[in-house]
Amino acid sequence: MHCLLCESSAERVMTLRHTEVWRCRSSSCDLQFAWPQPDEKRLSQAYEELYYPRTSPETSSERLAPTTSFVLRQLFESLRQHHPFLSGQHVLDYGCGSGVLATVAREYGMVTTGIEPDPNARAEVRLAGISPVYAGIDQLLADRPDAQFDWILLWNVIEHLRSPWSEMRNLRRLCAPGGFLVAATPNANCVRARLMRQRWEERVNSTHLYYFTPTSLTATFRAGGFRPIFNNHRFVIYPHHGPLRRLVQRALVAARLDGKLEFWGTPDEPCAALPAVPAPLAKVV
Fold it and tell me: Taking the domain 44-186+216-283, which CATH number applies?
C-alpha cells in the first residue's frame, strides 16, 4: 500500500470494523488514513445516521449546537486577536453542516457563505436562515465567479474529505489577498487516541477518512498550496467540564496531547502578510 498523499510506502497499523487504518512510513508525511474508503452510498447512509437524519434532526447536529456554539465563540475570539475588526469580513464555511459556525460568525458581523454537499444538511441550514449555501465550489463559482474570502474555515471537515489536499487547492483561488485558511481536526497523537486505538470515537466514525497528526496536517497544507503559519494550540473551555477535568485538559494542552489540532495557513503565492503571533500560539515546526 502507498500513501495517498506522498506515495511513500504505508503500513497497516490496525483493523476497524468498517475498514483498515494505514500509516505513511515517511517521517515528513506521517499520514494516517482509512483504506478502503466507503463508497458514496455507504457514506451517505453514515452521514444520515450520524449527522443529518431525515425524520428527527433534533437528535443530531441541533442537539450538539449549544456546546458547539460555545466552543466556536472561543474560535472567533481567537480570530479577533489577529484581526480586531471581524465585522464585514467575508468567511467561507466549507462543510457548513447545519450552519452553527455560520450563525456564530454572523454574531461577529461577518458576511457568511456556506458550502455543504449533503442535501439534508443544506435543508437544515436554510431553515436556520443561513444563505447563500452551495453544494460545491463549482456551484459557488458559477454563481459568483469573482468570489474571494478573508477566512476559509474547515471546522472538523478535513478528516471527511476524499482528497483534502485537492480540495484545498481548489479553495486556494477563493482565498483573498491577506486571507487565511483555518482547519480544525481531531489529533491522532492525543492521549485518548493512543489509549483507545480501534475504539477511539474518531476512528469508529466511518465518515472519517483521515486521522491527522501535526506532521501530516502540515504536509497536507503544503500539498494543498497553503503555507502553514502556526498551530493555534489553545486551551478550549467546554461548558460541561468541571474544575478537575479542566485541570487535566490544561495539562494535556501543555504536553501537546490534547484532542484538537487547529492550523492556520496562507496561500503559497502570493504570501499573505503575517499577523503578529500572540503568546498562546505556537508556531508550526
Answer: 3.40.50.150
